Structures are given as structure tokens and as C-alpha cells.
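Budget justification note: compute hours in this period were largely spent on complex prediction jobs such as the one shown. Inputs:
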Amino acid sequence: MGDDRRWSRVPARRLTRRQFLVGTGASLLVACARGIQPQGPTPTPTGPSPTPASPSPSPTLSDILNFANWPFYIDKKTLRDFRKQYGVNVNYIEEINDNVEYFAKIREPLSRRQSIERDIIVLTDWMASRLIKLGWLAELDKDNIPNWTNLVDTLENPSFDPGRRFSLPWQSGFTGIGYNPKLTGRKLTSVNDIFDPAFKGHVTMLTEMRDTLGLVLLGMGVAPEEATLEDAEAAVERIKEAVETGQIRRFTGNDYGPDLVRGDAWVSFAWSGDVVQLKQDNPDLEWLFPEEGFMFWSDNMLIPITAEHKFTAETFMNFVYDPKIAAQIAAFVQFVSPVEGVKEELTKIDPALAENPLIVPDPETLARAHIFRPLDPEEEQQFEQLFQSVVRA
Amino acid sequence: MSAELAVEERAVPRPAWPAPRPRRWRPGDVLLWGYAALGLVYLFLPIGVMVLFSFNRPRGRFNFVWQEFSLDAWAHPLAVPALADAMVLSLKVAAIATTAATVFGTLIALALIRYRFRGGGAVNVLLLLPLTTPEVVMGSSLLTLFLTWGIPTGFLTIVIAHIMFSISYVVLTVKARLRGFDWTLEEAAMDLGANEWRTFRKVTLPLIYPGILAAGLLSFALSLDDFIITLFNAGPEVTFPLYVWGSARVAVPPQINVIGTTILVLTVVLIGLSLVVQRRRYR
Amino acid sequence: MRGRLRALVPYVMAAPGVAWLVLFFLVPILTLAQTSLSRGTFFTGFHFAWDWRNYLDALTTFDQQFIRSFEYAGMATLIALAVGYPLAYAIAFRGGRYKTLLLALVVLPFFTTYLIRTLAWMTILADEGPVVKALKVLHLLPADGRLLATTIAVVGGLTYNFLPFMVLPIYVALEKIEPELVDAARDLYASSFRAFRRVVLPLSMPGVFAGSLLTFIPAAGDFINAQLLGTSRQTMIGNVIQSQFLVLLDYPTAAALSFLLMAAILLAVFVYARLLGTEQLTG
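Corresponding output:
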């Protein structure tokens, strides 16, 4: 279809895909390969094995859909359109600020198979992986989501969910640097600029381990795809030093926003679309793709195993995988849409958006993006403990 | 906070203010008042900021930098649905928790003051304990209880927690009121042939009513404002303080300031009214 | 028979509230104790094991945060005393007919949501805000200095948020002192400072004692001020308990920390009571 226009510089779809894969570097490729053919020690699930999806009790639409998402992660029109088309009211709850915190909030009821009164929740890859291993997610009935074939090929087989049995990407994005050139007094280029003593006390990092550790590792010349525990220790040591000298002001989830806007933070590890949105508050803010590379992630729509309205949830997933709707969302949230054909639709809305590398990244940008190595549960705990000991005290 | 309302009551019932003695202004007084004035400025600075920023029109998500004067937020105080929901939830919780805590607390206070009974001292100690325990400890211990019992946290557990921490305050406030109570009035009523219930309703209750009202107000305010204990036991529910906590990270609509200001104004009105009512009662 | 039934009345009256406190305050503390001696992780499940290592681990890992919490709470208490005592004194002895009004003014800010007040402090103290700019112009703050995200801001926030807990008990104690007594003392000691030291101050000590405790205890367990007004270097024990419980799901460590906090506070109260003399306790 219009795929040839998706990456403007490359002519044919076949080539596009290859270039995309090559472009994204070993990272995504490795991730995909692992997904299909697990290499090395197979992660042993710590929780009960995923229960097969229970047949949806009634394939009829409910009146309401409870959708928990991160703040500023959808436009209001999409929800209205969904109601118009299907007569379903979306109870849209912006309650997710941090993967770890949200997990803490839902773990008790879900571990007891009690309802959390949510039909769709949106969590980042690694947390989605954890929920799958715990068996807390309902398997998606792809018959109800015919549009799922619009998912970009590169995201089809992540290591944690080969074939996307339990998860469907909501948005992807980059973790890089958001900063205020007026306050830093200069343009930044490198991840390591965040350690510049001139910015002492005006620097924030993220509480998401993979984001912060990944960027710091990149600054140290280590690919996050190959990070060992020793690498992580070295990176954490570097962060710790920066905490002790007072370089780092805070570790944040979403809340680097107010700090950047007020001018308390000059340089922050930040999420791509966020910084674009924050420009409304403070037009001086700039986004930086650090020269050493940056992190790439996806947030996924997941259906908790106790969801009351599974069929409606799947209908909604199908709805947002329509390129037209996906483009509408992308235009608002300014993150990378995982849906094929969005670029064409974006061109119709605003050609500038279609050319924005933050929303429709070109292969050169993707080539420099990294994803964190999949960790088995034991490693996960080691890494987290190491990291959290600095970040959350 | 327990003392404050009790204090007002003690201050108010005085039949007449002592006539101000003519006195010279000493330099010490000037110093003292200057100091006190500074203290008041310190106390009201953040309040001023809150009120001021309720009239702001923020450019984007955050109401942190003054942009321009606007009445938008006041015209549409419920424009943010999640905020409105949170407020409604908080009011519901506060209403239920206040009612229960006021009843429980008043009964304990009556029992302690009216009767001497074995274990009364232990009850006094039990009542003091929550006041000397940090909120994190209360919140976290209650959470472990709910985890152990397998009770899902949510509306019910918030209400349970709020009743728990309000009881002590209610007892203290009502007790402060009862201390000066003339119990012979009750006996007189019974001598006149009223039964106990009738005596309570017609004599005791009207006399201790202001104390109960003050206790209820206090417990309502405490419930509406509680953050720490609620954070531990709220489950998926979001009360007003929890909403403010979450929004501080991602978006602060000026409606938060509008609601904060409204609560403040209502408090002023209620305190004013209760003072007037009490003063009248003593005439 | 009737007499025996009557003897039951106070028990029946106190029963619901006392039961509530036992069930949702005392029993949770016991579950907390049990959890603090358990082993395991969220993923493998927890089991009771008389495991005292949690306490050792908690103490050795988070000793800094413990010390910091007590330092900050101590500083906040001292500053609150320095600000609050003169304020209470001014109102009690010089308030005249405006006593109630002034007291209401002191209490009023605290009917605004705690979190909104603290957010307002963030706005006031912001690096690019007017206060910091003014201080820099006056050279009271170095050019690269700041207020927000410093120890000053955290202690200032703690002081602010718990100030009324200091003012009110002191006011109550001062208010009880007969003005005639002060006048007599002034005649006796000739200097008003000595009159204050010999008469007023000792008589107000119960208020100081209660006020200090009511300020110190919540301040030591607080995590909101450190979170919003501080950095990772101002983390207090409350922050650790909160994140261990609600984020990292390490219940045994979190429970051990809660228990240690409670024990440390009880110890502090005991030492403080000994220093001031136990008779002050009963006031």
C-alpha cells in the first residue's frame, strides 16, 4: 500500500523493512530472533504459567470500557469517536505514572485473581513481560482484532511475547534528553553532558531502570543490548557518584515535566513525545537525540485476566489499530505509532508531523536506537536491586 | 489539631471579655508583634499562592508559572472529570468516616467522663497511641493487616482507616467540652420524671452538641486531607489528596487551586458560624 | 440486678470505638511485627520465620536515612518552637479581644490540603522564582545557589506543615496562666524577662512538651516534604518505608523499618520526658 511512503527515502516496501531491521541495529533483530528461538538459558517463569484465554463470556459489547493509561497518552477525540461508532463509553483513567508503582498497585488483587476493574492497562515491554510470566493477562483473541496485522513487523515478535499473544503495542518512543538551552547556555550533544558539573543540581534522571541505566551505559560506550552485571554496577557507581556530589537533583517518573517547565531542571532524561508536549508550557525546551545513541521502548495494551469486558477491550484495540485513528492519536501524543500506514494518514492531517523524526522516525534515527537486553528473573532482581538502591533510597 | 477546637471552645464561653486594661506599649511588645506578624506571613504565604494561582491561565499542563489573570477555572471548577470524581469520593469517605467516628468517639468520651469503670485508664492510653504513632506506621501496618486477611484495598479500607485515625481526635474534642459539664442538670431532669433516654435527648445532648459538632468538623477536615494513610490503603481508588499527588507529577490544572480555596472558604464560614452559634447559646 | 446492668453501660458505650481501635490499630501493629520477622519475596511468597536479620539489614542499609529523619524532625521542632512560642505568647497575653480571631488565623492555613500547601512551596521556592531571585540580588544566596531541593527547603516544609501542632498546645498552657500572676511576678522580680523566666516559662512547659511531641513525631515519619522539596540526598525514613512497601514490595524490610521507627520515637519520647521531668507529662 502506501508503505513505500512510510520511510520517505526508500522506494520499496521490501527494502523498507530490511533497512528498518538493519537500521534498528542488532537490538530489535536480536529481540525478534530471541523471541522465535530463545537463546541461552530460558527464563523460568516464576509465577503460574499463562492460563489460556478463557472464552469471552459474551461476544457482545459492554456499555463501558475501563481503560487505564499514562497521562496525556491519548486525544479526547479518539475516545469520542469510539463511543460514536460502538456506543461504548470509555472510562479513561490516567493513573499510570511508573511501571513499578503501578505493578505494586495491582499485584495483590491480580495475584488473587480479583478484579482490578480495568479492561485495558498500558505497561512498558519489560513490565508486560513480567505480567505474562505471572499469568495475570488474558490471551488476546486475534479474531476480534483483525487490524492487528497493521502492527509494524519489527514489533511482531518481541522476546517476551512471541507472536503477540498477550500484548499489543500502544505507542513506542525514545528515551533521550530533554533540556533548556537557555539555562544550560549551550547546545548539548552527548549523554555525558548530563554529568557536566556546570549543571550541578539541575539534572534529573528516570526511575525506570532500563531508561536511565541504558543511557548511562551508552555514555560509557557499552551497548545496553550486551550489558553485563559488571557493566550495570559500573553505571550505577557513576550515578551514585553524581548523586553524592549533588549533580543529580532527583529521580523522576513522569514528574520531570514540572521541573523542566519551572526551570528547576535544565537537563533531564526524558521521553520523546513528552518533551514535545511540554513545549506548550515552556517553549524553550529542546529534545536531544544523544550522539552515543538512545533507548527505544514500547508501551503495550494488556488485558488483565480478571477483565470484565474482554471483548469490548479487543474491539477497542482493533479500533486504534486503524491507521486513521492511530494517526489521530500519534498527532496528539507525538510518540511513535506502532501501526503501519500512519505516515500517510499523518500527511493528510499535517505534513510536518509526517516528517517529524520523533513521530515517524527515519531509518537513520532508528539505527541509533537501542533496547535493553532481556533479563531473566534472577538478573532482573539483581539489576533492579542495584539500581533501586541508588534511586529510591 | 485536636487541641485547636477545644481551645476555641474554652476561649469562647467566657461570658464577657475582660475589659482591656489601659497599658503602655513597651518596646518588647513591638518586637513581639513584629515577630508574630512575620510568623503569620510565613503561615499565609503558600495560601496566598494557592489562591492567586486559582486565577491563572496556564499555557500548558502546569500551573506553576504566572501567565495571565483568568476566571476560567472558577467558571468551570469541575472541568477536569478525574478531579471531580476524586473530590466526590473524598466527600463520600469523609461523610461516612465522620459519622461513624463521631458516634464512636462521643460514646467513648461520655463513658470516660460520665462513669468510672475498670479499664478506663487503658482506654485512655489506647486513645493516645494513634496520636503518637507516625502516619507511615499506621498506614503500613493497616496495609499488612489487609494483605494478611486478603481484604482487597479500596473504598472500604479507606473508610476503615479514616474512622480509625479520627476516633481519638473526636474523643479528645468532646471530652474537652464535657469536662466543664454540670451533671446535676441530668439528675434534676430525672428527678422531674424524665427517663434516661429522654434526659439524654432533651438535656445532655443539646448541651454537649457544640462539642460533638466541633469534633465532627475536625474529623471531616482530617479525613478530607489525609494523604499518607490513604496512600497505603486506597487500592485503585483516588481521593482528592491522592489526585493532587498524582497530578503534581504530570499536570496541575488550576481547578486544584479552586477546590483548595473553596475548602478553605467553607472552613472559614463553618468556623465562623459555629462560633456565632456557641456565643448565642451562652447568652 | 439492675445495678449490675448499669455497671455494664460504660462498657457498652465504649465498646464499638474501642473495638475499632483494637482491630484496626493494635492488631495491625501485631501483623506488622509478624511481617517484620518473615522471609521471602513477593514472587516466592512470605512466611513467618523469626527472622531478625530484617532488622539488622534495615538498620545497616538505611542508617543514614534514620539519622537524617531525626535530625530534620529535631530541627523542624526547634524552629517551630522558636516561631510558635512567641506567636502563642503574643496571642495569649497580648491578643486581647482578638484572641480567638488570631488563633483562628493561625489554624486556618491548615484547613488547606497538605499537598497543595507543599506544592505552593515548590512554586515559591523555585529556582527561577521571585524568592530565590530576591535573595540572590541581596547576596544572601550565592549566584548558583538554590532553595528548592535542599535541606533548608525540606526542614522549612516540615516546620511549616506541623507548626500549628506546636502553637496550639503552648497557647493552651499560656492561656491558663492568670494575668494577675504575671503582674505579681513582674512586681516581684522587677524585670519582665525574669518574670517570664521564673513564672511564665515553667508554667508553659507542659504545652512546650506536648507541642514538641506533636511536631516531632509526624515530622520524623513524613515523606512528602522530602519527596517534593528535597533531592535523593534528603531522603527520610518515611520515603524508604513508602517505597519498600508500595514500590519494591519488600514487605519484611519495610515492616522492620516501620517498627524501628516506632521504637526510636518511643525512645526519643521517653528520653525527652526524663529530661523535662515526668511531672510535666501530666501537666
